Amino acid sequence: MHEPVLAGPAVAWLDVRAEGCYVDCTAGAGGHAERIAAGLRGGRLLAIDRDPVAVAAARKRLEPYRQVEVIHGNYADLSAMIRDRGMDQVDGILIDAGVSSMQIDTAERGFSFQEAGPLDMRMDTTSEYTAAALFASETREALARLLRDYGDVKFPGRIARTIADRRAAGHLNNTRDLAESVREAVPRKAMADDEVRRVFQAVRIAVNDELGALERGIGAALEALREGGRLVVISFHSGEDRIVKRLFQEQSRPRRVLHADGRVKEIHPPALRLLTKKPVVPDEAEVRANPRAHSARLRAAERLG
Ligand SMILES: C[S@@+](CC[C@H](N)C(=O)[O-])C[C@H]1O[C@@H](n2cnc3c(N)ncnc32)[C@H](O)[C@@H]1O
Fold first, then answer.
1. Are residues 289 and 218 in the same domain?
2. Are residues 232 and 262 in the same domain?
3. 100 Cβ closer than 6 Å to some ligand 1 atom
4. What is residue 46's predicted lDDT score, i.e. its pLDDT?
5. Which label site among 65, 193, 204, 289 has the fewest CB atoms less than 10 Å from its CB?
6. Count of domains in the chain?
7. 36 & 88 share domain
8. What 3-state DSSP class applies to 219?
9. Measured from the CB, is residue 235 less than 6 Å from ligand 1?
């Protein structure tokens, strides 16, 4: 099993204090959570994942740490989870967004474009909306839009058309068929693998509403953190990092509320102080050991009063 991505910087930026109260929004295999838990003496850690398989794995790994609770849920609903547990003063929150190696490496989950699997791609296997449901319900135009917006796909129109044609002919039944649709649509073979990867990313993001969850989760994290508390977010592609960067920037500036005639009504002080002016990225050794880390970017900020 790989070390979690940017494990050292993530825990360092969280500034884990022994008696503090922390939330790991994306427990996965529990790697980051274990590092946080190891630093606690009297403190507390709530670890969340929307994938029941990840929850089971993290529970097993974190069993020796009595100060940790691992729960199933979507971190978009962070406010309720924190409220239900009476955690009103959170010292640090970590979001390590996206998909895990555990998910990608299990062909039956449908995340991998290298192996045949069902058109599933749900992180939360208790939810009903799968990739197959997405293909059955979206129009060709909507499909093209999501391929472009969530995957930076180069030929969204052509690929959406091929997918729609295959779907109509009853030939879109598994991840192989999906990858084939992309290969058929791209004009040059040399581009195909990258384009297939981008299409799978876009579909996965749409199935799991990942960007919506990230936006809501960061908002909830701001509400939950005490003054001086830290928010650390690791993202893996440009769509995610754009959201983190924008929200961090917006929240680190005074916010003006205007009257209808344009006069300033109120000025709210900034909610965040940026700790990382530029995103922290993995060093060469980490990328060599774990090529999936290459696109990771970490941003950290501190809650102001
Ligand atoms: C990159 S992995 C996290 C790896 C983890 N930090 C570790 O040390 O093993 C991302 C995890 O976040 C989970 N996840 C993604 N979006 C989520 C959301 N909105 N709510 C809860 N969990 C989410 C995924 O199911 C996956 O297990």
1. yes
2. yes
3. yes
4. 98
5. 289
6. 2
7. yes
8. helix
9. no
Q: How far is the CA of 99 from the centre of ligand 1 (A)?
A: 6
Q: Does the structure show a pLDDT above 90 at 131?
A: yes
Supply the pLDDT for residue 240.
95
Atom number of ligand 1 nearest to Cα 214? 19
- Domain end marker among 151, 185, 207: 207
Same domain, 195 and 221: no
- Establish if 49 belongs to a structural domain: yes
- Ligand 1 closest atom vs CA 213: 19
Is 0.90 surpassed by the pTM of this model? yes
> Which pLDDT tens digit goes with each residue over 183-227?
999 998 888 999 999 999 999 999 999 999 999 999 999 999 999
What is the CATH number for 75? 3.40.50.150
Q: What is the pLDDT of residue 188?
A: 87
- Taking the centre of ligand 1 as the mean of its atom positions, its distance from the CA of residue 161, in whole angstroms, is 32
Residue 35's alpha-carbon distances to 6, 8, 146, 210, in angstroms, are: 12, 9, 36, 25
Task: State if residue 123 touches ligand 1 by the CB under 6 angstroms criterion.
Answer: yes
Sign of CA dihedral 234, 103, 76, 242: positive
Residue 151 structural domain: 125-207
* pLDDT tens digits, 275-285: 999 999 999 99
Domain boundary among 175, 207, 239: 207
Contacts of 160 (CB under 8 A, 6+ apart): 140, 141, 143, 144, 147
| Token digits of residue 195 | 């384009």
